[in-house]
Each structure stands twice: as structure tokens, then as C-alpha cells.
Protein 1
Amino acid sequence: MTDTTAQPDGELQAVRSATSQRRWRTGAVVLGWVGFIVIWELLSRIIGEVLLPGAFKVGGEMWDIVRSGLFVEHFLASIGKVALGFVWAVLFGAPIGFLMGRSRYWKAFFKDTVLVAGSIPGLAYAVMALVIFGISLWGPVLSVALISMPYIAINVAEGLEGVDRKFLQMSQAYGRKPRDVYRHVLIPAILPFVFAGVRVSFAISWKVEQLTEVFGSNKGVGFQIRSAFQRFSVTEVLAWVLLFIAFMLLVERVILVRAERRLFRWRTGGQD
Amino acid sequence: MTATSPHVTRVGSGNRIRRALTSPGGARLTSYVALLGAWFLLAMIEERVPSPPAVAEFLWIELTGGSHGGVLKGEWVEHILVTMERFGLGLLIALVSGVALGIIIGSSRYFYALLNDTLLVFLALPAVIWAFITVIWFGIGWRAPVWTVVLAGAPFVAVNVSHGVQAIGSDLRLMSDSFGVPLAKRIRHLILPAVTGYIFAGFRFAVIIGWNGVLLAEWFGAAEGVGWRTRYWYDANRYQGFVGWILLFIVIIVALDRLVLTPLQRRAFRWRDLGSEAIEFQEALTEETLLPSDEHRS
């Protein structure tokens, strides 16, 4: 149960025990996946293939979807809408956050809206987008933009408040024009926070994007999930959503995190 | 937070109206008016969007039980009650199972390695998938909404609780080991007091996510309830009814969150250094709230 099986008996032993611990943990991770799949298969046998298709059946379906090229087509459609939504979210959210961070008036102005927006159910965004745009590309884009905007605004506002006041005072003391202050102090300071806002809201935004596609769309992963539901095919619902999750986690964990680290390496003094 | 920030303070020119308008309260009021104005504008541009007066009129009829024309009567109490029953039951199950799972995952590195990936998959599954699957499993009725809340909410409780258990200092755990404290006592006196705040934070996410889930499950597979009623008006092409119910379910969750959960949570964390405003900002908007706690029960 405890974390300290290593005895302070010398470096070599410590290293050895650390290695064996790591091996143990890797083993546990692998075992976790195997266990997950075995339990899933067992449940499927007990409940029945129709209600809960087994892991291998769903896996086969996933392979079919990928091989037929359907996945690439619809995944690209979905992620395109997510990306477009983020463009709008940054275009509106960053200035709002900027105002909130710089002026007490605008902070009070936007605060309620931004806080409430965080607890509105995704369903509300999805169906509102449907009412406004009908079945179109812009519904999902709007819901992504609306759901991620508060995160970006909050991040930028907090980031601005954290800008070292010495820089601002120094700029003033040296008689820098406001334009220069914005360009060289404030905007570089908030960019990482814009990015962090995007990364934090990414997990929520793709879910809402997909939900909006469920309600009204003729292309995209959400549309496929809806069609599968209408055929009462649990296999297809699971196959589509698992593929979608896998790729979205990949985008989130690998691409966004790496890009962030790389873009803003200068901030940490190149430590990593 | 506000004291150190580079705010631009506007000093009124002695004009009281102007000062009132630029005060924080005035700013809030202006923002509400602006939102309402934006809605009016949207309703004018887009035919499908009902105007605020139309929605207000609908809500008046619906809430007072008047007639929508013909035999169609306004009704809301029974829908909100039935949804709340499903929501409450689902949350209770999610809370209990999430706490148990979180304690298991957090209490040992090997359980963590064993179960964490599975938990991540469950965290990533959107609520609508659970709504679809449970509707296929259980058909139309109360079970699909309840299980959607459980399946969508429990992982969020579990992940928070497991972080809370991991945050317990290893010195305390080591000491319990050395003195041979039995497991039951350890859970009661060490783990539970340390994780109550985390349970609370996880529960709050479960509430927000579960609310979305219960509405979705009712939308796709129920014959009564808030989600069903919203869909009813959508299918009837009466967008003022549809928007009215969306407003109602937003008001319910925001009131629950702002008036019940946030004050309770702030109370639970009042010993902490952060100002209440900073907590609000963080709590409202981070996915995983990982905060230590004192002994406050959700």
C-alpha cells in the first residue's frame, strides 16, 4: 500500500528498486487495459451482443470505419468545425478578457455572463445553435465558440492581472507609447493565457461540437453517432465515439501540449 | 486580486447618473440590458428565434397553467419534480460509487496504474453517448435518465476523490502503517476528513454534467420531465416554448450552482488564503478542481 519500499541501503539498491517499481507500474497499466477488455467481453457475454457488443466486435467495427475512409472524412469535418469555433472564440474572448483584466468597469460588466456561461449545459448551446442556424456548418461552430469563449476570457483576464507591474511602470517611466506597451509587454504576456484557455476548454468544446452535430448536421462524427443511434446500433455508437475520443485525446494531450510548450519555451527560461 | 491589478479607475465628473452607471452594479445592469438587446436584435434578424416578449408570454401561460390554445394546458411542476427525482437518485448513486472508486484508485500506486486509464476513457465519454446507450438498454422511462447521470457523473467524483487521497501526506500514511491503524479507522479518521473537499468539488462537476445528461436522456427517451417537455415544444415547432424551457433549465442549474453549491463550497474552503472571488473564478472554470479541504460534508 505504501510508496516507500526502497530502503536507504545505498544508491545501487535504490536505483534497482526504482526500476522494479517502474516495471511493476507498467505491468499494472497493461494489466489494467487487459482487465478492462476482459471485463467488457464478459459483460457483453452476460448481457448479450445486441445490448453491449464486446470489445473485439467494437474494435472490428472501428477498423472497418477507418478502412472505409469514412472516419477521416467525418473526423476532418468535425475537427474543422472545432478549429473554426476556436478562431471565433479567440477573436471575441481575448478582447473581452483583455477588457476584464484592464478595467474594473468591464470586469463587472462581463463577470456574471462569463461565470453563468460556465455552468450552462451543453444541450442548451447545441439546441440554440440549431434554432439559429438550422442544419448547417455554423451551428457547431457557434456552440464551440460560445462554450470556449468564457475560458479564454477568464484566462486572459487573470493573465493580464498577473503581468508584472514593474514592466508597466518602467514603460511609463521611459515614456513608451501605449501602442508599444501593448505590442511588446501586454500582448506577448497574454498570448500564453489565450493558448491555455484553448487547451483547457478543448475537452469541453469538442463534446459540445459533437452534441450539436447530433442535433443538427449532415456531416461529422456527431452526425454518424446520431445515425447509429437511430439504427439502435450500440456497436456503431461505441465505435464512432471511441475513435473520436482517441483522436481528440491525441490532439489534446500530444499536439496542443507540445505546441504550447514549444511556443512559450521562453517563459520558463528554456528549462524543459 | 483587484487590489494589485492595473485597473483603470474612472472618476465621475460629479455627475451622479454617470457615476451610478460606471459603478460595478451599473455595469452589471448595463450588461443585462445589452444581452436583452442582443436577443431582440437576433429575433429581428432570424425568424426562427422567438423574441423575448413571446417567450415571456409563453412562460407566463406555462407557469400559471393557462391555455396555450385548444386543450393544450401549461404544465411545469410535475415535469420539474420528476426530473429532479431522477437527477437526485442518479447523483446519489454517482456520489457513493465515485467516492468508493476514488478511494480505491487513490490509495495505492498500483491501483492507480491499473485503473486510471479506464477512468480517463470514462471521463472522456460525452453524456450524450450514455443517454443513447441507456435509452437503447432501458427504453423509454426513468431508468435511462438515472443511469445516464450515474455513468456521466461518477467518473468526475472518482477522479477528484482519487486526487484528494493522493494528496494526503505520506507521513500520515506511514505513521498509520507504523502504528498499525486498522483500515476502517484509517478511512474514517484519515481519508474521509482529508477528501471531503475533493468529494465536494467532484460532486459539483457531477451536478453540472449530470444535469446535461438527465436532460439529454429525457430528450431522447422519456415521456415526461424537463428534457421531454423541451423537446415537445421543439417538435411542435413552437420555438417560444422551446426557448422558454431552455431558459428554465438554465435557471435551475445556475441557481443550484450559484445559490447552493458555491456558497457551501466557499464555506468549506473559507480557511484558505484565496479570496472568494478567486475561488469562484477557479472553481467555475477548471475541469479538475483539486483543492484540499477541512471537514465539510457535501
Protein 2
Amino acid sequence: MSTAAATHDDHHDHHHAPTGLKRWLFSTNHKDIGTLYLWFSFAMFLVGGFMAMVIRAELLEPGMQFVDPEFFNQMTTVHGLVMVFGAVMPATVGLANWMIPLMIGAPDMALPRMNNWSFWILPFAFGILIFAVLMSAFGAGNPSAPNFGWTFYAPLSTKYGPASTDLFILSVHMMGISSIMGAINVVVTVFNMRAPGMTLMKMPLFVWTWLITAFLLIAVIPVLAGAVTMMLTDRHFGTSFFDAAGGGDPVLFQHVFWFFGHPEVYIMILPSFGIVSAIIPAFARKPLFGYASMVYATASIALLSFVVWAHHMFTVGMPLAGTLFFMYMTMLISVPTGVKVFNWVATMWRGSLTFELPMKWAIAFVILFTCGGLSGLMLAITPVDFQYHDTYFVVAHFHYVLVTGAIFSIFAAAYYWLPKWSGVMPSKLLGELHFWNSLISANLLFFPMHFVGLAGMPRRYADYALQFADYNFWISIGGFWFGLSQVIFLIVAIRCAMKKGEPAPAKPWDGAEGLEWEVPSPAPFHTFDTPPVIK
Amino acid sequence: MQSTLFHRAAVGLTSLMISGMTFASDWTERSNLDLRPGVTAVSQEIQDLHTTVLWIVTVIGLLVFGLIVFSMIRHRRAKNPNPATFHEHVLLEVLWTVIPFVILIAMAVPATRVLVKLDDTAESELTVKVTGYRWKWSYEYLTYEDDNDIGVSFFSNLATPPEQYNNPVLAGGLFPYGTAKDRVGQEAPEKDHNYQLEVDKKLVIPSGQKVRFLVTSDDVIHSFWVPDFGGKKDAIPGFVNETWALVPEGKEGTYYGQCAELCGKNHAFMPIAVEVVTQAEFRDWIAEEKEKAASGPDLTPFSGLDQAMEEGQQVYASACALCHGANGEGGIGLPFAGTDFATKSEHLNEHIDVLVNGRAAMPAFKAQLTPRQIAAVVTYERNAFGNDTGDLIQPADVNDHE
């Protein structure tokens, strides 16, 4: 059946598919838009990574050697924004675009034109943000780029924000519009476009986690938009939402921001759970353990994520009762997260394991994400958090869950589905080099951050006291190493895009399951014009 | 550079190996590995809690990772070619939901206990109001024992000289701009032991008495944190947060801390230094400070330009250089070198006024500096950096200024 559909698609292709620049600019094809998202996110990963290199170069030794503390703050700020909104989120949207229609047997996303728009907003949103950085670096008088941290706490970002704060506000609004449209598209596609027989509880877990992610996005991106709009009116229209002198409340900003910010954390990690839940069974050659409990655990994580936001704010001076509530709720979230980890381990248990590249990244994800999760549990214990808060311990924690968590799983996904996307197998040698270098360097980079944080080094410090010097040196070395290792992936991806490598069969992994493996590799331009039959 | 890197590598490796074994009594001891126990009862309870939780998560982690590694070895295809097919096990699933929940309760109980203790700021003997400024702290002594009218307050600035931290290795473009441009390529002076931690005037508190800190801010959010006292408290404009410390007798000494909430350019340059003294010493100190405060400003005229310049240079380095540049070339603040503002006599009165009352982003300094210091620094700004106006401003000129 699928071959017949594919032949038909090739034919279709001949007549209608635009070529050249127009193909990408005007594309309404979920695969092309997915590809755009993925390339864009990787470009942003390199841009944000370059900023991290500037940060680590400055922190290599105590003293200010390369940049001014002001520029340092701009680097930490824009690094965070680019990585969160430019690298991780668009990468998972790209995966959703490519894979959700293929996984549920749909011909395309439900709202293809909106899909085009939601992607093409992004380059402009980040163009604006990066323009501010370029102005700061090379413009006359070095006007500051956003310099208030990716969390942009008021009043540092309102009354004391540089002129470029307005560019930042516009840029965040545009990213938000893009995310909401992407999320609506996923929800509508999943609810309306599933092949006959594909009940909700038969959907691959990646589709489930993305469906829940999409609801989180729709719920909290408007809150972020509200926060930046309140900033805008505080800055220019005489309101005092966040200004105590005008009767406002700077802490209100943090509540609004983290009401967005905490679910945002899960927006970045839930799709990773889906990816890993696809890859581990494929290479264990054994069905996913506890499919239903995975779905319920994802949903309960999503729900709990709305009632834990103030654990980012334990030191602002909340009443005891409030502090206790947020501590208990935060601790509770580790139960469903633990269930997921145990399920993955049980999936591997007594399987028939092989360790191809996607599996290597997936296992690294499970172990290192768990490290991040365990330090997260430590951070939940409020009295101790009073010591950890705003130190490198926190930096270590969120880089473990975001880099060795989210980004490792995105690499796992890339190695897993690249044969389907490109029609060639990614280079094994380069892939191994990429994996081992990334694995070792990421731990050299992030693990000592725990020590330096416990020893008492505050985060976002351009210069530090001498007792932190030794760890910072090694962290920086790990940072440069990790940064360079990602260039290997650039080569892997370019080789695949140029079709260099062993041709991939329709199903390159013998244990893999799912509709995406029933179409040829590379996946034809149009797939599932006739819905597949679900057994 | 190469030898420095090699040296650092060797030192780093060695300290990584030994740091776990030695207990560092001093925060400035290099390569601390673990959370510090601190000196107060609360900070030690926090450390105990940290150790407990760390062990719990380590055991859980090792258990999970051990299972993964075991499975990776024993259940690889070469060993186990026929995979099992199970995908559910109700008892197991219930167990790994319930057991973590029980562990969580075991952790929540002591956490709650410490939290309740930390929250109790009642019955303090000394109350100090701590205010965060960009980028310095001010301390105002409000009450001590039965004395409700102390009237002692002062600012505390970073004392590490800029030469020690501005060590640019490249020139041009943004690398570096401002203060460091003319030091490109110069040998960096050796850094003090308390590099980036030393201040010009320490917060002094007595041992054996409960000290309550009222923490607030004048501009953006800062965070008041002395690791050895356990925990931090945000300094938020428009809010007054409370925290407290009781340093036991016998633990007198200097304890350092740093601002822990991003507050702008010089976030890393506003340390906290607390000198804990015995109660007798504290009484003497506070009496002396009260006397100084009561006697009014010192208006003795400068003996000449040289004396004013010398005093002015010190004030400039601690209060002005961060924004206006070590050589008056500007930065966040406006430049002085060769500008009309700092050289033309018609701007002299305005110059004093901006310092006393502030203007736009420039804060008012009348609360931070004495008339003598303001007079000295204005004199300095009008005669240093090649300005050479010969203007000599006397403390009385500033004191008369409204």
C-alpha cells in the first residue's frame, strides 16, 4: 500500500513542487518546513554556542581579559534567549513537523499556510535580537544589547533596561506568536488528521508528549506576552506594574514570568521524553514498558508544572505557608518523572540491546537527564535552596536537563530519523566522534559547575574570587571542547543533505516501529495521501 | 600564557584530588568542593540537610545507573538474542510510584523543620538595615539592645583595585572598551588573597547575639548572601525582607559574601564583608561610630591642592571609577578628561551639585560621602586626567551647598 501511495506522490511532485528559493519561502509542506525549522535551530545553536564561548573565555581565569562586564552580561542574556527560544524550541517544533504527520498517517499538518508563517516569523524575530548584539559589539558607542539575563527581572529590564529592551520585547512577541501557531497546528493535526484506527491510546508517545507540550504552549505563551507587554507599558506609557515607587510590585514580574517559565521548562523536555520513548524500544527490540503510565505521567507532569513556579523565587521573601506549598509541589513532580525513568530502564531490561548512534544518545540522555533531575530534587528542598539559589549549582542543574537532556535527545532524534529525512545513513565514524566528544566534554563542562556552585560562586558573574579559579579553568576547557564537537555534527548534517553516504532502506533500524518506516527513505514529498490502515 | 595554563592545569588536578579530603575553614581557600557548613547553627543544619539529600539522590542515582549498565552488559544482543516481550507489571509500577513518595516525605519533614526555624526573626538584639545599591551595599544600624536611636550608617564598596581585575589581552573594538584600553598587554599585578571580596568598610556585628537584617534595595533587585550564615535574601526595591544570623561566641572573624542576584554591569563587584567581634568590642565600636556621627561633618579645610588630590584619588577609585573610568574617560557615566564640564569654571557649581544631589542616572552622593570627600573628589576630577584647572574646593563649600 505504502509503495503505491509513494509512486503516486512522485508523480504529484513533478507537477506542483516549486523549486529553488520559492520552494522554501512559500512552502506549505510539513517536511520542508520541518527541515527549515531544524536547520534554523541548528544555526541558532551555533550562534548561542559562540556566545557561550565568549562567556567561557572570559571565565577561563579570574580578572577581566576579553570583554567588559557589561558585554559579558549581554552575552549571558542573549545566549540564554537564543538557546531556549532559538535552538531547543524550534528543534522540537521541527521534529513535530516532520514526524507527527508521518507517525499518525496524515498527509500534512492541518494548517499548512499557518505552518509556513509560524516558521518564517522566527528568522525575523532572532534577526532583531541579534541585531541588538551586533550593534553593541560593532556600533558606534557600543549601545547595550539586552543585558538583564534571560529571565529579564524588573526593574533591571524596565526602569534600568537599555534602549534595545524594546527590540527584545518585539522579538519575544514574535517568537511567542510563532510558538502559539505551531502549537495550535499540532493540536488540530493530532485531533483531526489521525489515520482511521489510530486511537489516541495507539499514538506513538512522541505524538502524545507533543500534544501535551502544545497545550502547555497555548496556556503559557500568552502569559509571557503579557509580561513583556507590561514591561513595554512600564517603560513608555507611564504604568507602574513592576515599579514599587508607582504602587507596583517588582515581585509580580517574577510571578508572571515564572508562571510562564516553569511550564516552559517542560515544553522543552516533554518532546525529548517522546523521542527517547521511541528510540529505546527500537534498539531494545522490545515494546515500551508502561505505555499508558507514560501518557499519564506526562499529563501529570504538565499539570503539576503550573503549581510549582515559585520554586524559582524562594529567596524573594514569600510567606512560610507559600514556601512550604511550593516546596511540596516541586518535590511531588519527581514522582511522575521517576516513573518515566523507571519505565525506560524496564524497557531495556531483558531486551536485545544494540548500541547504534541513536541508542547511544538516548542512553546518555536517560543517565544525564536523571542527574539533572536529582539535582533538581535537591534544589526543591527550600532551606538548602537558600544556599544553592543563583549559584553555579543551578547553572549545572539546568544545563544537565537542557543540554545533556533536551539537546542530547534532539541529537538522538536526528541520528534516528536522518535516514528517513535524507535517504542516506549518517556517517558512522563522524557520528561516533560527535557522540564521544560531546559526552565527555559536556560532563567536563557541566559537572564541576556543581562543585563551584556549592563552594559559593554566584551565577552571571563576569569575574570571581580566587577560590573558584581551578574549577572555572576546567569548565572553560570543557566548554571549548563541547563547542568544537558540535562542528562535527554540522559536517554530518551537510553530508546527509548532500546525499553523501550509504543509501538508507525504508526501515534502517530492524527493531523500529511506526508508520514513518513504512514510507520509502527519503520520505517522498507527499506521503499518506491515502490514509494507511492501522492494525 | 602557556606556562600559566600548564600551571593552572597541574594545580587544578591536584586540588581536585585533595579537595574532598580537607575541610576548608576559610571561604577563600581554593577549590572547595562541597557546601560549606558555615558558622551559625542554621547554616550547619542546612549543611546537614544538604548532605542527607545528597546521599539519598546519590544512592538513587547509582541504583538506576547500575541497573542501566547491568542491562547494557547482560541484555545486549550478543548475550540475549531473543528479547523478552513484557511491557507491564502492575506491582512494580505501584512500587516505584509509592516508594519515591515515601522517600520524599522523609526529606520533606526535616526540610520543613529547618524552614520554620529560619523564618523566626523574633527576639533579635541588633537590627541592621541592609540596602543594595548599584554596585555597593549600605548598612544602617537601627536598634541594639535597648538603644533605639543609633544613627550609624555607612556604605561599603569593593576595595580590590581595578588594576587587579582589568587585565585586557586584546585591543580594539569591544575588546576591551572603557577603563582598560590603555592597560592592554600590560603585566597584571598579583591578585590579593581576598580578590573581589575585600571592602573599604566592613559590616560589624557582635557574636553570641541574634542579628536581624532588614534587606531592601534602592534601585534594582540585589541579593544579600553570606554563605557562612546560611542562605540568601533578595533585596527588592519597595520591599523590606527579613533574615537573621547568630554567630556563636568564639567564632569571631571576617566572613565574606557576594551579591547573588543579577543587578547590572558590576554585579560581580559588590562583595559583602562582615566582621564578627565580641560583644565588648562591638559596644566600643558602636560608641565610637556614634560619636563620629554626632560630631557632624569634618569641615577642616585642605592644606593645599596636593592634600585634596591625594584624598580625592582614593574616593574616586572606590566611588567613581567603575562608571566614569579609572582615567576619567567615561563608561556608563560621562567622561571627565578634557571635557567642558570638568574644566570650565562656569560648570564648577553644577559639578558639585551633581555629586550632592544626583542627576538622571547619576545617584546623589550626599548620603554616601562626607562633604570632605565630595570636595576632595571634585577637586580631583578637575585637576587629574590632564584637566589641571587648579580649582581647589573646600569641605565647607560642599557643606553649604543645598
